[in-house]
Amino acid sequence: MGAEFLFMDDNARPHCANIVDECLQSEDITRMDWPAYSPDLNPIAHEWDMLDRRIAARQPPPTCLPELWRALLDEWCNIPQDQD
User: Fold this and answer.
1) Which of 38, 41, 39, 68 is nearest to 54 (CA)?
2) What is the rounded distance in angstroms from the CA atom of residue 84 to the CA atom of residue 78?
3) By mean pLDDT, which of 3-12, 15-24, 25-34, 61-70 is the weakest?
4) What CA–CA distance (Å, rounded) separates 35 from 33?
5) Residue (of 59, 9, 11, 44) closest to 29 by Cα position
6) What number of helices (H) and strands (E) belong to the chain?
7) Residues 7, 28: contact at Cβ < 8 Å?
8) How confident is the model over 15-59, as pLDDT tens digits?
9) CA dist., res. 7 & res. 33, Å (int)
10) pTM of the prediction?
11) What is the predicted pLDDT for the residue at 36?
12) DSSP letter at 50?
């Protein structure tokens, strides 16, 4: 990947694991520093929340990984573009 990439994470414990740090260093990827919980700084957090709610509301719910993958793609494509 290289130096042109900037890794934005939320400093959550899984993202700070040694294996993650080692991978980022081996790929020469810079990590952006920011607080552990900051959904206001991470605009995609709102989209993930919306996607999670849309998947949870599906009836019947996905029962296997291929169904979940299709449901995620369908719901992602159907998120309104003008919604804040």
Assistant:
1) 68
2) 14
3) 3-12
4) 7
5) 9
6) 3, 2
7) no
8) 678 888 888 889 888 887 777 666 666 677 788 889 999 999 999
9) 9
10) 0.50
11) 66
12) H
